[in-house]
Design goal:
There is one protein chain. The chain is α/β, with parallel strands linked by helices. It has one domain: SGNH hydrolase (Rossmann fold, 3-Layer(aba) Sandwich). 49% of the residues lie in helices and 9% in strands. It contains ten helices and five strands. Helix 4 (87-97) packs parallel to helix 6 (125-142) and helix 6 runs parallel beside helix 7. It is globular.
Length: 239
């Protein structure tokens, strides 16, 4: 019975992503995943290492599934997440790692490092807001017609984040609010990752989904991929 349940889950998960028509995509589209370590996923930096070019995360799951289901689209998937990055770090490399790549669809997930940073790396909510806002404005101006999806940063009370969770989450909520405001300002789809992980914690402990409170397990990345596909299918216009 256990094996049947697992098989049923895999079939349903496969179906949800396989049915994803991703209306923003057409032939030879470029899908770019941008962010911090959650997106980085241990990806290879060498362009020749095709076994690891997308990392081991939600971006890899989405790229693998969509690429397999729609080879006729000849979509190029690119991962430019870098571990430890804050929005200020994204800004420093935005031209080379985003604008120059001319994505058709750009997926951004950043904010947890901004909320948790201390000392010289700490930044104000105002800095986070202004920098993120400028990145979006510059991208829309330079790449007319680009589709952008924003991901909400998230955190769960696991490991070293368990005791200070109330304080840390209060800071994170400020960044979550900023991302929501920017999504509304620019009429962009917003993926509520915090909500899906909070809901998932009713089924299994927090550490099952985010092994250290920040980084997803394979199950957590699968949840992210499913939600990403659902929001993109529902929200983005046809090309």
């Amino acid at each position: 019975m256990r094996y049947l349940s697992v098989l049923a889950f895999l079939l349903v998960s496969h179906s949800l992503i396989a049915q994803e028509k991703l209306p923003a995509l057409a032939q030879h589209s470029v899908v770019l995943f941008q962010g911090d370590s959650i997106t980085d996923g241990g990806r290879a930096r060498s362009g020749q290492d095709f076994n690891h070019t997308m990392g081991q995360d939600y971006a890899y799951i989405l790229s693998a599934r969509i690429g397999a289901e729609h080879p006729e689209w000849a979509v190029t998937f690119v991962n430019r997440g870098i571990s430890g990055n804050r929005v200020l770090d994204l800004a420093a490399r935005w031209q080379a790692d985003t604008l120059d790549l001319k994505p058709t669809l750009l997926s951004i997930l950043v904010g947890v490092n901004d909320a948790l940073a201390t000392g010289e790396r700490a930044e104000s909510v105002e800095q986070f807001t202004d920098t993120y806002d400028q990145l979006l404005a510059d991208t829309i101006k330079e790449l007319p017609g680009v589709q952008i999806v924003l991901g909400e940063p998230f955190l769960l009370p696991v490991g070293k984040h368990k005791e200070p969770y109330a304080v840390e989450f209060a800071e994170l909520r400020k960044r979550q609010a900023v991302v929501a405001q920017l999504a509304e300002k620019y009429h962009l789809p917003l993926i509520h990752y915090q909500e899906i992980f909070d809901r998932a914690c009713r089924k299994a402990p927090a550490e099952y989904w985010l092994w250290d409170g920040v980084h997803p397990s394979y199950a957590g990345h699968a949840l992210m991929a499913e939600e990403w596909a659902r929001i993109v299918r529902k929200s983005l216009p046809k090309p």
